[in-house]
Amino acid sequence: MLVSAPRLSRLQSSFPGTPTPTGMHSAALTRPRISGIYPARNQVAKRVFRKTIMSAGAKSPDGRPVVLITEKLGDPGVEMLKQSANVVVALGLSAAELNEKIKGADALIVRSATKVTREVFEAANGGLKVVGRAGVGVDNVDLGAATEYGCLVVNAPTANTVAAAEHGIALLCALARNVSQADASMRAGKWERGKYVGVSLVDKTLAIMGFGKVGSEVGRRAKGLGMEVIAYDPYASEDKARALGVQLVTFDEALAKADFFSLHMPMTPGTKKMFNDDAFAKMKKGARIVNVARGGVIDDDALARALDAGVVAAAALDVFEEEPPKWEGHPLIGRPNVITTPHLGASTQEAQEGVAIEVVEAVVEALAGKLSANAVNAPMVAPEVLRELQPYVVLAEGLGKAAVQLVADQGFADINVTYSSPRGDDLDTRLLRAMVIKGILEEITTSTVNLVNADLLAKSRGLRISEVTVRSEGESVLSSMSVSLGAGKSRFSAAVDKTGRIYVEGTVRNGRPYLTKIGGFDVDLSVEGSILLCRQRDQPGIVGTIGMLLARDNVNINFMTVGRTARNEEAVMAIGVDSEVPADTLMAIGMVKGVLESTLFKELGA
Ligand SMILES: NC(=O)C1=CN([C@@H]2O[C@H](COP(=O)(O)OP(=O)(O)OC[C@H]3O[C@@H](n4cnc5c(N)ncnc54)[C@H](O)[C@@H]3O)[C@@H](O)[C@H]2O)C=CC1
Ligand SMILES: O=C(O)C(=O)COP(=O)(O)O
Fold first, then answer.
1. 451 C-beta neighbours (distance < 10 Å), count
2. 343 classed as catalytic
3. Which of 25, 111, 343, 501 is catalytic?
């Protein structure tokens, strides 16, 4: 039987492990536990971690670990590494050669060109303990396979920030003044002064899309060029923006206002093809776009159409959906008003030395069995605990994803997680909390979140997290859990509970995670795939109309439930969909008679 969750306001002031007067136990977290709130647990975690990382002995006869480097790494990093490891540098390996070479390595250091696939981990057969990525993005590393094989992946998230920002500024200037085209023309022996008249940057409006590490550095520099800087980032702090003299705006405001755009958001399901026909249609005619983020945030064909129509005057691209891209038939490469660079954002001598040192420090720490703040995945939980919590891990991540997807433009300030468990305060919530944070943060940042870095990342973003554990009855380790966010506003007003917070609750049945409550409404949804949510009046005809609208776009429905009516005559209907619902269809659904509001959960779970 489920014990109802206590009110948050009362328990947020409790401290970890403090018994409440009712005999329940609560755990509130206002700073990361990893750094000492639970020293005993932390020691255990470290032991588990060390055992996992150092499960096999080093591969060289002198007992020092062997580290294979497959891409050009800054010399200071290589020299530092040589002090504690046997270094093997082998550049330009084929996949088969890498699979062979990896058998003799304890660690591997790469940039973005080496594809660290499942086959690499299979070939290493558990002997590869650490993969170091000398840069931010780890999309070239199969993280699932790494974790399965007990291999820690670390990256270098900060040392190339300035380089990426500087490249953004370089492209911005080149774009405004046709530098690349004019240079090419002179190389061809021409003197075409009239053809390459540019536009000025001063007093123009630059919209920074994604105001994180790189975006804010671009903003700072653009202010120095005399530009008016605005930023769209639903999760950015108002204070940070104000301190830099940058105004935070909504997506549509940015589109309507900016003369220049500089893209700096991460590649996530939420940002994929964010710059599509709809977005270009809302832009000021003649806008210019710089992309130093990831190729996939732009719909290439839509940008080509916008360039053809003159809506976008020019674009500068450093990144591509596929790298290297296929030149033949590419809609953008080679156009007179598109300039391109081969993913050079991080390619300065200084940044490469910086990332080399940053990644080597992390690799050496990991090989020594220490916790690394740069860990991207970390199999720190004992296998039996992991097995027991596995279905709840999926639930926790799904609740985090669902909650953050319900947040409106203004973002949110704090997270509350409530667990109802027969174990009460003995429930080890670290993994579940980390997964909630992962679900939330991976929708909004480039960082890969795990048990090691979840609390630190949340804290570094200024998010307050509180946890409450309520003792419940029952057989399973967890009866239910909920996530609530202190958000200004929700995209789906029914998701806001009586206390004004975005609230989602779920449970696990027969090993499968289910969402059981959204705001004040009971629902019963398997946490998987994409789900269309509608709040509607209880009246006939709505289901059929929505079904037809989806069928019109060939969107297959895989399930449909209507939530029990909780208030008045309203209900929440959920429809599982197999493919993307186009924006205009979503809008049409919102206008169906009797539908009060609608929203879409994207890729909630596996
Ligand atoms: N071209 C290159 O060589 C390099 C590219 N990068 C790329 O630059 C981008 C930014 O990196 P960092 O600043 O280090 O990451 P970050 O995590 O510090 O910043 C990303 C920002 O985007 C915001 N964001 C998330 N979802 C958003 C959305 N839907 N709309 C607008 N903003 C959203 C986040 O709140 C965060 O503030 C990433 O895409 C990364 O892959 C980074 C380094 C080098
Ligand atoms: O750090 C990143 O995410 C980058 O995009 C830089 O990639 P690179 O190391 O230059 O291949």
1. 23
2. yes
3. 343
> Which ligand is located closest to the Cα atom of residue 72?
2
Q: Is 138 in the pocket of ligand 1 (CB under 6 A)?
A: no
Give one DSSP letter per residue of 552-604, joined into a string. HTTPPEEEEEEPPP-STTEEEEEEEESSPPPHHHHHHHHTSTTEEEEEEE---
Name the residue with the closest Cα to ligand 1, atom 4: 345
Q: Determine if the pTM surpasses 0.80.
A: no
521-526 and 512-518 as β-strands: parallel, antiparallel, unpaired? antiparallel
* Cβ–ligand 1 contact at 400 (below 6 Å): no
ipTM above 0.85, yes or no: yes
Residue 50 has pLDDT above 70, yes or no: no
Q: Is 236 in the pocket of ligand 1 (CB under 6 A)?
A: yes
Task: Give the residue, by CA position, lying nearest to ligand 1 atom 7.
Answer: 293
363-396 exposure pattern, b = at least 16 Cβ within 10 A, e = fewer: bbbbbeeebbebbbbbbbbbeeeeeebebbbbbb
Instruction: Please name each of the domains of the chain with its CATH number.
Output: 1-19+27-37+382-527 (3.30.1330.90), 56-159+352-379 (3.40.50.720), 161-340 (3.40.50.720), 529-606 (3.30.70.260)
- The predicted pLDDT at position 53 comes to 33
Place of tokens 């997807």: 405
